[in-house]
Design a protein that fits this description.
Belongs to the 3-hydroxyacyl-CoA dehydrogenase family. The chain has 278 residues and is of the alpha/beta class. The protein is built from 13 helices and seven strands.
């Protein structure tokens, strides 16, 4: 697993919980040193949401995780490499070029990119037939979808192998029939989040009012800003900071100044648009 942020760490833990050995890679040991605390944060959610989770099964999951900042070591014996690095095309391409240079020939490559198409990235890999997208939703242990999306060079057998892998780690495999920015989930979700951000930036309504309106009128369990807190502030910031839309750029600036710079990164840090307890 490349990347140990909010979603990357969830993918790591869920895959290990499903019984597979996982190597967690990130760019330095300082980042990796935070992982044990992340596992302790995730355990109560598994105990709350999954009837079969026990302290023993969660400890066993942790025992199947190994962390390293050495990329060659991380992928040396990998059957599949899943990438969840920051949502920037240059970073993703650079990452996959480096992985291609050290990964075994049989290794399958999968990007978890939320907005970029696999065809945007495939030129950076040395095995186009084994490259595709595998996208997860946040809170992966209960929002358990795995969207599988190929690009034109993906071997159909690899596509099915990745779909089976998704099912093996407890996901409902969503076979996306053609490339679509945002897959199925984010094609539905992103317009909602963009509309909420616009309402806030333009001063139409306050955050709590926007969320309450959506919950009351639709019966949804979370409002859009609560969803932002689950996703974390970094992803929407990166997606909006260079936008040609001035409203989206202002939204990113507010995220940076009022939230990211203040350590309010969302549910993962206990503070975002809202405050969260234990």
């Amino acid at each position: 697993m490349l990347g140990t942020g909010v979603l990357g760490s969830q993918i790591i833990f869920q895959t290990a919980y499903a019984g597979k050995d996982v190597v967690a890679y990130d760019i330095n040991d300082e980042i990796l040193a935070k992982l044990p605390a992340r596992w302790e944060q995730l355990k109560p959610f598994y105990l709350r949401d999954l009837p079969d989770a026990t302290p023993e099964s969660l400890d066993a999951a942790v025992s199947r995780i190994r962390a390293t900042s050495d990329l060659a070591e991380a992928v040396a014996e990998a059957d599949i490499v899943i990438e969840a690095v920051p949502e920037r095309l240059d970073i993703k391409r650079d990452t996959w070029q480096k992985v291609s240079a050290v990964a075994p020939e049989n290794t399958i490559f999968a990007t978890n990119s939320s907005t970029l198409l696999p065809s945007d990235i495939v030129s950076a890999v040395d095995r186009p037939s084994k490259f595709l997208a595998l996208h997860f939703a946040n809170e992966i242990w209960r929002n358990n979808t795995g969207e599988v999306m190929a690009q034109e060079h993906t071997d159909p057998a690899v596509f099915e192998e990745v779909a089976r892998f998704a099912e093996e780690i407890g996901m409902v495999a969503i076979r996306v029939k053609k490339e679509q920015p945002g897959y199925v989930l984010n094609s539905l979700l992103v317009p909602l989040l963009d509309a909420a951000a616009t309402l806030w930036v333009r001063g139409v309504a306050d955050i709590d009012v926007i969320d309450m309106t959506w919950r009351k009128a639709t019966g949804a369990p979370l409002g859009p800003f609560q969803i932002f807190d689950v996703v974390g502030m970094t992803t929407p910031y990166n997606l909006n900071k260079d936008s040609s839309d001035p409203v989206k750029r202002e939204f990113a600036e507010r995220l940076k100044t009022d939230y990211i710079d203040q350590g309010r990164l969302g549910v993962a840090t206990g503070r975002g648009f809202y405050e969260y307890g234990d």
